[in-house]
């Protein structure tokens, strides 16, 4: 998988969430075939933990995890370490998804520790940020995202190991998306915040948009300034939906 440092290659990553079984891995074949037709786009799939090893064995597509424990080992029932993910074949891992921030009460500090573990293991961290609808309605969206970045982006992170995914919580799985202007403004704001945190390295960090990305809206969203790709949930489960998004990138 290419790094983001040179002209920020687009990245279209699928997050299967808690969906998929062995039979679903057949979708990877069609996705891989489409990805080969678009070599200027990086494509990755993040299936459930149980499918990482068989997915990585089946395809050359980069396979990722949806979470990672911050510690290397120990008494953490139900958790999986970064080294375990690498051994299973993962090359990237999502951290700080809003569903985990909400359901598992993950703090910015925990997300940062997870991102550091992912990077230390040689994987790419896709670090998610995004405001709730109430926060946007209150005019606090940019401040909320800025605070998440300040609290969860590891200091000294390198552009080839860090991807930011801006996912407004209210747009996830709802069929709703921010206006193109709001997406562009938020991505520009994220870039500015990253420069303050990481210096010039920030210019190589890819910033993905996520939240109800579909074939019908992908071209518009992916064509916006500072939108370096997409993190796709529901529309990544079927190649018939995901492939047009890859093509749009
Ligand atoms: O990680 C993916 C996002 O949560 C977006 O999900 P969605 O495309 O189903 O809205």
TrEMBL record:
Active site: 97, 167
The protein's enzyme class: isomerase
GO molecular function annotations of the record: triose-phosphate isomerase activity
Cellular component, GO annotation: cytosol
GO biological process, one term: gluconeogenesis
Pathway as given in its UniProt record: Carbohydrate biosynthesis; gluconeogenesis; Carbohydrate degradation; glycolysis; D-glyceraldehyde 3-phosphate from glycerone phosphate: step 1/1; Carbohydrate metabolism; erythritol degradation
Domain of life: Bacteria
Subcellular location, principal: cytoplasm
Entry EC number(s): 5.3.1.1
InterPro entries: Aldolase_TIM, TIM_sf, TrioseP_Isoase_bac/euk, Triosephosphate_isomerase, Triosephosphate_isomerase_AS
Binding annotation for substrate: 15-17, 173, 212, 233-234
Residues in the signal sequence: none
Subcellular location: Cytoplasm
Keywords: Cytoplasm, Gluconeogenesis, Glycolysis, Isomerase
Enzymatic reactions: D-glyceraldehyde 3-phosphate = dihydroxyacetone phosphate; L-erythrulose 1-phosphate = D-erythrulose 4-phosphate
Assembly description: Homodimer.
UniProt function note: Involved in the gluconeogenesis. Catalyzes stereospecifically the conversion of dihydroxyacetone phosphate (DHAP) to D-glyceraldehyde-3-phosphate (G3P).
Family membership: Belongs to the triosephosphate isomerase family.
Name of the protein this chain belongs to: Triosephosphate isomerase
Protein source organism: Sphingomonas changnyeongensis
Classification of source organism: Bacteria, Pseudomonadati, Pseudomonadota, Alphaproteobacteria, Sphingomonadales
Gene (UniProt): tpiA
């Amino acid at each position: 998988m290419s790094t983001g440092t040179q002209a920020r290659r687009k990245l279209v990553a699928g997050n299967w969430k808690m969906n998929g079984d062995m039979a679903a891995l057949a979708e990877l074949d069609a996705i891989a075939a489409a990805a080969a037709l678009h070599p200027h786009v990086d494509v990755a799939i993040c299936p459930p933990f149980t499918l990482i090893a068989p997915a990585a064995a089946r395809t050359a597509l980069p396979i990722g995890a949806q979470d990672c424990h911050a510690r290397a080992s120990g008494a953490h029932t139900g958790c999986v370490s970064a080294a375990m993910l690498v051994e299973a074949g993962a090359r990237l891992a999502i951290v700080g998804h809003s569903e985990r921030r909400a359901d598992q009460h993950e703090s910015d500090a925990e997300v940062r520790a997870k991102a550091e573990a992912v990077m230390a293991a040689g994987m790419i961290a896709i670090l998610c940020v995004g405001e709730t609808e109430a926060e946007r309605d209150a005019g606090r969206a940019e401040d909320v995202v800025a605070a998440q970045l300040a609290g969860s982006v590891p200091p000294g992170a390198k552009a080839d190991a860090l991807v930011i995914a801006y996912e407004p919580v209210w747009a996830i799985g709802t069929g709703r998306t921010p206006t193109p202007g709001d997406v562009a403004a938020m991505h520009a704001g994220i870039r500015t915040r990253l420069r303050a945190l990481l210096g010039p390295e920030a210019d190589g960090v890819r910033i993905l948009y996520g939240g109800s990305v579909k074939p019908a809206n992908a071209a518009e969203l992916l064509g916006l300034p500072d939108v370096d790709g997409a993190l796709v949930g529901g529309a990544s489960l079927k190649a018939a939906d995901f492939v047009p998004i890859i093509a749009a990138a």
